[in-house]
Write a structure and sequence with these properties.
Length: about 80
């Protein structure tokens, strides 16, 4: 149950990232305002919050990429 939910969540996350990248590409090709301009101004306005978000995202990515190879969401059982 948890493995299926995790799988769907990761799939949805990558789908959203793909759509955001497609929008960014379209905006750059058609001279519209890309997402990068909004993010850049937000980072300049709130650098502390941007730093905290970057640290949290880095910790989460590190946990999932270099964490243990067993657990509830792993297809391999604990050795």
């Amino acid at each position: 149950m948890i493995g299926g939910l995790f799988s769907w969540t990761v799939t949805a996350l990558f789908g959203v990232i793909t759509l955001l990248l497609a929008f960014e590409t379209w905006a750059l090709l058609t001279n519209h305002t890309p997402i990068t301009d909004y993010v850049r101004s937000a980072v300049h306005s709130y650098p502390g919050i941007a730093f905290v978000i970057a640290v949290v995202v880095g910790i989460l990515l590190g946990h999932f990429l270099w964490g243990p190879a067993y657990g509830r969401t792993s297809p391999v059982k604990r050795p």
